[in-house]
Task: structure prediction
Amino acid sequence: MPEHPVFNALAPVILMVSAGWLAARLRLIGAGSTRDLTNLVFLVLMPAMLFRAMSRVHLGELELRPIAIYFGVCFVLFFGVIAVRGWTREGAVLGLAAIFSNSAMLGLPIARLVYGEAGLVLMVTLVSLHSLVLLTVVTIALELAVLREKPADGGPSPAAGRGVPRTVLMAVRNALIHPIPMPIILGLLYAQTGWTIPAPVDRSLELMGAAFPPVALVMVGVTLAHTRVGEQALAATRLALLKLLVHPVLMFGAGWLLGLRGLPLAVMTLAAAMPMGANVFLFSQRYRVAEPLVIAAVGVSTAVALLTVTLTLALLGWFKP
Result:
C-alpha cells in the first residue's frame, strides 16, 4: 500500500491526542493535573525547544519575502478577528486560533514529503520565525487586553490613569519577559555569535525539546476528555474552518496578487492550511480565557485537517502555482 504523506503526518498527532483522552477517561490523569502539565510545557519544555532551534538560525541565510507575505496575511486575519470580537483576552486568543498553525510538527514533514528538500527549506525558514513573530505580537496584544480589562470587582483597570505610551511599554515589557519570546530572542542572539552549544547542554535541550510535542498533544487530549465538546461543537467547528479554509485561501490570494508563484506560494499556502498548534491551547490556559472552546477547536481542526489539507494539496497541484 503506498504511503500517504498527509495521513502519515497527521495520524501520530491524532493518536497522541487520543492517548491523552483515553488516559483521562480511565482516570490515569486527573483534571487537576492540566495546570501543572501546562506549566511544564510552557515554562520548561517549550523554551528549551525554542532556544535550541533559534540558536542555529543565521538571519542572512533566510529567504524572507514569502515569509513577510505570510505574516502580513496572518496579521490581517488576526486583527480582523479582534475587530469582530473586541480587543479582549478572548478576542486575542481566538485571533491566535485563526492564524497559528501546527507548522513544526505537521508542516515540516508534509513539506518534505510533498515538495522535497527545497520545500523543506522554505518551511524551516517559516518555522524558524513563526513563533518569534506571531507569539510576540499576540502576547503584546494579550498583555494590552489584560491592562485594559476591568477587574472582576468592578474597579478600574490596571491601565487606568496611564497614558497610551506607558501602557504599550508595559505590555511590551510583559511580552518580552515571557517564556515564549525570551528564549527565541536569546537563541537568535546566541546564533549570531557563531558559537555552538556545548554538547551536554545541547543534548539536554534536544531531549526536552523532543518531549514538547508529545506532552503538549497528550495534554490536549487530557483536557479534551474533561471538556464537553458537544456544547462547543458549533463554535469550535466555525473556528476550525476559519483556520483550515479561510487562512489558506487568504494566503493563496494575497500571495498570488503580490507576485508569489511556484514553490514559495505552495509552501506558504500549505503552512496556512495546517490545523491549530497546541500553543493556542496553552495561551488560552495561561490567560484563562475561552479554554473549552479552544480545546474543542484544536481537536476539531486536527481531525478535519486530514480532509482539508488533502484538499489543499490537490488544489495546489491542479493550479500548479
Residues 155-161 have pLDDT under 50 and may be disordered. Residues 5-151+160-316 form a domain with the Na+/H+ antiporter like fold fold (CATH 1.20.1530.20).
